[in-house]
Design goal:
By secondary structure, the chain is mainly α. The chain has 17 helices and no strands. The chain is globular and about 65 Å long. The chain starts with 20 loop residues before the first helix and ends in an 18-residue tail after the last helix. Keywords: Cell membrane, Membrane, Transmembrane, Transmembrane helix.
């Protein structure tokens, strides 16, 4: 009996380019809005006092510089995927591409874990429950299990649905701004706090600003997800630059205004350590205003959407890496009826459950700040590599016009991202590096097991970077 050659996979039709500038703008805004601003305003204020708006502004500047690099890559290679695809094209090192892909996956788990804790805190605030740290932990774990169930059943995330989610999330932030304006017009609030720096005793002003910016950056992430929509966007080389920068600018204005009104209305002592800071702002500014009672539930909706999107992304990335043969094959099992990657869903859920439990062991620490800071740590590391990738690919010419980030901005992007990653410059707590290290170590162990199983040779599959397109 002669062996037959494997049949080549049938060619797939290209994705439909159905996303115009308006839908793309709403997708970008909706992806950036979420847990960061709803839950971390108080933690940022705890580092710099009333000048909480400054770290958000600096984070916006750093994100914009990196966005320029993404714009050059996505307009230069509009049919590619995310960060790992570009890194693989630039350096061609299989293990580096895998690490970038796995770190992006890990950031999804830490982001969803932060969102679950914020969901629990807002649920307690919305229903005015008196539960301790254990009660909040149980609600957060239950929420992650609910997300797992929805993920297993199968969720079709479309851009049009994202429009609805974006409007709901944005409504909560606009509520804070309008109620803040109304309260200040009525003589409530103290604008002198907005320019008052109050840093922890063990930190100089500059280091405190760096620490707060490292945390505030969590609120600005999400824009990079739009890169994966390039193949479905009409005229991406022309539309993407204008729309992405517009989306970043809108969210930056909203975030800065929210942080200004927050510190002007609520004393810093009440914001610091508060896991539902915006709820406190609205209830302080308008305690008898009925709509104030809605904000905890709007916040729940916003962070729930963040958790679901990130757990969907994490499980699909893990499944994709297993399918390409760089992670153990048990992670690529698909349910026969639901057609969802159930083993990858279970694995990512187990990581999230363990992570939430681990960080909740310290009842005095801020779980959301710790997990949010870890998310920004992981993504800033990826962004540093992306900025370097632009410089590496500068000599690779294409036949169509594309955005050019210049030579200076990518260098600034590398420097600023690395600055916000390193412990002695960013002022990050050591726990963030421990969590990030554990997650990356898990990925390396899984990769080594697979590498050894393949006879110490990389599998002869398509490049690992291709799996980032599943994000």
């Amino acid at each position: 009996m002669t062996a037959t050659a494997p049949r080549a996979p049938a060619a797939q039709p290209p994705l439909k380019r159905a996303i115009g500038p308006k839908l793309l703008l709403l997708f970008i805004i909706g992806d950036i809005l979420g847990t960061g601003i709803y839950a971390l305003t108080g933690q940022v204020a705890a580092e710099v006092g009333g000048a909480a708006w400054l770290p958000f502004l600096i984070a916006f500047a750093v994100a914009t510089v990196t966005a320029f690099s993404y714009l050059e890559l996505v307009t230069k290679y509009p049919d590619a995927g995310g960060a790992a695809v570009f890194v693989h094209r630039a350096f061609g090192i299989h293990f580096v591409s895998f690490l970038v892909c796995f770190v992006v996956m890990a950031s999804g788990i830490t982001s969803a874990s932060a969102a679950s804790r914020a969901f629990a805190a807002n649920l307690i605030a919305g229903f005015q429950l008196e539960l301790g740290n254990v009660g909040i932990l149980l609600i957060a774990l239950g929420f992650i299990l609910l997300v797992m169930l929805v993920n297993f059943i199968g969720v079709s995330q479309s851009v049009k649905v994202n429009v609805v989610l974006t409007l709901v999330e944005l409504s909560g932030l606009l509520m804070v701004i309008f109620i803040g304006l109304w309260a200040i017009a009525g003589g409530q609030g103290d604008f002198s706090r907005v320019v008052a720096f109050e840093t922890p005793e063990d930190k100089a002003v500059f280091l405190a600003i760096s620490t707060a910016t490292s945390l505030a950056f969590f609120a600005m992430v999400g824009f990079e997800d739009s890169v994966n929509m390039a193949e479905e966007t009409k005229e991406p080389s022309r539309i993407f630059p204008r729309v992405l920068l517009t989306g970043l600018s809108i969210t930056a204005v909203v975030y800065v205004l929210v942080s200004i009104f927050a510190v002007a209305i609520v004393p810093i002592g009440e914001l610091a350590g508060n896991e539902t800071p915006l709820v406190t702002v609205v209830q302080t500014a308008a305690p008898d205003f009925p709509i104030a009672d809605l904000l905890p539930f709007i916040s729940m909706f916003a962070v729930a959407n963040t958790a679901l999107i990130n757990m969907l992304m994490a499980s699909r990335l893990l499944y994709g890496m297993a399918k390409k043969g760089v992670l153990p094959p048990f992670l690529m099992k698909v349910h026969a009826e639901r057609r969802t990657p159930w083993s990858a869903i279970l694995f990512t859920t187990a990581l999230a459950l363990g992570l939430i439990t681990y960080v909740s062991l310290d009842p005095e620490g801020s779980v959301v700040a710790l997990l949010g800071g870890t998310t920004s740590l992981l993504l800033l590391a990826v962004f540093a590599v992306v900025n370097a990738t632009v410089l590496r690919l500068r000599g690779d010419t294409v036949q169509h016009k594309h955005f050019n980030a210049g030579r200076i901005l990518p260098v600034i992007g590398v420097i600023t991202c690395v600055y916000l990653v390193l412990p002695f410059t960013s002022g990050r707590p050591s726990e963030q590096y421990v969590i990030a290290g554990i997650l990356v170590a898990i990925g390396i162990v899984l990769w080594l097991v697979t590498w050894i199983a393949h006879g110490r040779h990389a599998p002869k599959e398509a490049p690992i970077a291709e799996v980032d397109e599943l994000r």
